[in-house]
Amino acid sequence: MVTITVNGDTKTISPDTSVWGFLSDLGLNPTKVAVERNLVIVSKSTFKDEVLADGDVLEIVHFIGGG
Question: Each residue of 11-66: pLDDT tens digit?
């Protein structure tokens, strides 16, 4: 198992989990969020290729419409 920190909370995930897969598992639409991994913004075009590693720190921001 792999341990990561997401928005300050510790999570345990399966090895070889991509950013895209993790977001999908959380029920988030990967096309509607911004992800920072270890202080670096992850490009949406690499969400499926970026495999999360033990000790990674993620910040996930999702956009909410309104006026």
Answer: 999 999 999 999 999 999 999 999 999 999 999 999 999 999 999 999 999 877 76
Round to whole Å and give the CA distance between 31 and 56: 21
Joined tokens for residue 61: 């921001």
Per-residue tokens: 17: 């989990």
Task: Sort residue 31 into left (φ over 0), alpha (ψ -120 to 50) or beta.
Answer: alpha
Q: Which CATH number does 2-62 carry?
A: 3.10.20.30
Backbone phi, psi, residue 36, to 5°: -110, 125
How many other CB atoms are found less than 10 A from the CB of residue 17? 17
